[in-house]
Write the structure tokens for this entry.
Amino acid sequence: MNSSPIKILLIEDNPQEARLVHEILSESDMIFELEHKNRLKTGIKYLQEVDTHIVLLDLTLPDGNGLDAFVKMQFQKLAIPIIILTGLDDVNVATTAIRAGAQDYVVKENMSSDNLVRAIRYAIERKNVECALENSRASFHSIVEKNADGILIIDQEGIVQFVNPAASFFLSRDKANLLNQKLEYLLDDDPLREINIQIKNGKGGIGEIQRVQTDWKGEKSYLVTIRDITARKELDKLKDEFISNVSHELRTPLTSIRESVSQVLDGILGKITEKQKKFLSVCLKNTDRLKRLVDNLLDIAKIEAGEFELKSNRWDMAELVDNVISSFTPMAQNKGLEIRSLVPNHAINISGDRDQIFQVFNNLLGNSFKFTETGLIEITVVEKKKWIECSVADTGKGIAQDELPKVFNKFQQFGRIDGPGERGTGLGLPIVKGIIELHRGKIRVESKANIGTKFTFTLPKHNGGLS
Amino acid sequence: MKKILIADDDPDIIMLLASRLNANGYQVVTTSDCSTTIKKAYIEKPDLIILDIRMPSTSGINVYESLKMFNTTENIPVIFITAYPSDHIRKQVTEMGADDFIAKPFKTEELLPKVKKVLNEIPV
């Protein structure tokens, strides 16, 4: 026990016995402060005013006898451990008092330094444990009973062992009507799914069920939670509709513009001059740029809204890189650049959306080509234990150090060069990052001015899990 | 001369598609809403219908299902066209058995081969 003194209150009407207690305690090595009161009333008053560790209580006091006295103390709810001091003839009463919540009793006739000090130390210790247990029980109770999520424990047959108020509300059945009842549908194969539930005002809503294995009173059981996701579902629907509407409203006029210009350019409506052709080509090129921007904006909107769907299957990264290289080879030849890949010479299985990862390479290589005038563009694939690491490196003009952290931000374009080829939308890299993160991968960039830039991303190997 | 029915609620798109298809030697009939699409298809018996998905009153998808209910129209190929080319819609129309799918804004290089393919004018 710690070295600060143990504050003891002795409530004892017999001055001789009080003196005895003091003497016995003084013989021990315990550091203590003893306060003595000779009436229950003054004792309780003292406890209310002064911080006290333990009470030594005589059962026969002038203003309260035996158990009555103890019960009175309990009523005060002082949460201080109590040791009953009792005579040999009172032992029965003392045991009753213990059942009612006293920590211990000491028979006055047998009182020694040893047994009194031990009783005090144990009593304080026991009270602490009791308090901790009670606190923990109360916390558990309030967490479970007040939880907005429905919580059920079912055994392996689906019989309800425990149910909290939220679960009972969602299932619109009261507790008595659920306990010991069989809810087989909670044992369905898919541990995460949606069910119809009751929500506020008795309306119907959607609940997400999650089931995990647990132990309940020593038996293998399931902990089932039901979460009200009605609002989230409604919001998802609104987001979907918004994205669909925006897409429709932007693409429809673009279609008319593009097709009108394109038909005049194609000569369907009669001959046009070279100069007219040149101007209309500018119009067409920029319409296409606007279309790319709309596509990219919708991709970003979907990624940010969590609506971007990956079509996941298993494929070989080495084969994909080969494809990427062949599709960029003509462009490299045109620009006089070398393009090559460094890939292990066996299949590297990836679970993911092949088209989207192709898009990632497409965007990264597109950037490399834009900013590299001489030298080399290289794709490297390195196989790690659980991950594969891909990089796209170039010998281009590089990105300034202070701009590096911003490359994945939307509409950040660095060192933009106006020249032939497609103009950027400022969304290529944010989309790349979004796609990689949807695959639970990571992406980083290193760059040195006039030496080059290297983007490196990781992807989990097959069955690495997709969101 | 092969006959193509264009069903779209946007008159600009109708005009432009008609112009493009005319220029490539097709006869074109048009309609701008769902209810007349089925009637027009029944009377005109086109070789192909280019059907917009989002139209007022009902969806092109419903029109497609109605077309498949009548002997006269059930075998007419349908190419869907939409300004909201989501994966979901793409999947839905493919599963329904539509002949092809075009996203707006479309390019001529994309439109004409699809039309020709559905009309069996180029070997697949």
